[in-house]
Amino acid sequence: MKKSEWYKDIFREASNIAMSHAITALSQMIGGPIEMEPPEVDIVSRVEFLKILAERGVSKGFTVMFDITEGLSGLTILQFPKHSALNITAVLMGMEPGSVTELDEMGKSAIMEVGNILISAYTDILSNLIGESVSLSPPKPAESLYDIEKELSRPDLRTVTSIIVFRSKFQKSDIGVESYFYIVPTPESFTKLVKKLENQVKGEAGNQ
Q1: pLDDT tens digit string along 3-13?
Q2: Strands, DSSP E only, in 46-174?
Q3: What distance in Å separates the CA atoms of residue 152 and residue 168, rounded to the nearest whole number?
């Protein structure tokens, strides 16, 4: 198995543990049982990353950015495509699915409550992988792809070539919601993360 596949497997395993806690919190918030699919994980290039963001629609959905302030350095982005953002707004506001057609400030606030649960799960994933606390800054809104490209032009992110993508999907009754969490680590932080993963890979290989 290629190292990159090992890395993805380790991310998936860590994601499953963290997301099990997120399911409980989301069920309590939404008011009923929910089902969550195992998270999908990928490592993509900078060009692929921007293409993915554009395809999922930054301005039409709900997208926020956070600086990584402890443990690692770089940027993280949480994105709900439009259909998911509208679905979750309707559920949280006690409205019929399909009745919400536009996101207002109240809707964005409701989505952010769900986002906070998912963000907590993802920071737990990173903390467990590197063995250190990971903290994020307060959220910064991304109204367009340009806002994200502007962040990527920062001196610390100009040479970023690898982005980690997590896709999570959960469902309540017949209402489905998907979200994407992107980790844009600085080259130094990506190297640090890879070394931690390599140590785990060696440990896995040694136990076989």
Answers
A1: 566 666 777 77
A2: 62-70, 74-80, 135-136, 140-141, 162-172
A3: 24
Phi and psi torsions of 46, nearest 5°: -60, -45
CATH code at position 92: 3.40.1550.10
The low-confidence residues of the chain, meaning pLDDT below 70, are 1-8, 14, 16-18, 173-174, 200-208
Structural domain count, the chain: 1
Contacts of 207 (CB under 8 A, 6+ apart): none
136-160 pLDDT per residue, tens = 999 998 989 999 999 999 999 999 9
- DSSP β-ladder status, 35-36 and 140-141: unpaired
Q: Domain range for residue 35?
A: 3-206
Helices 46-56 and 145-152, axial angle in degrees (round to 10): 160
Alpha-carbon span 73 to 111, nearest angstrom: 26
Q: What is the pTM of this model?
A: 0.85
Rama region for 179: left / alpha / beta (φ>0; ψ in -120 to 50; rest) = beta
The length of the chain, given as a count of residues = 208
DSSP state, residue 161? -
For every residue of 70-97, DSSP letters joined together read ESS-EEEEEEE-HHHHHHHHHHHTT--T
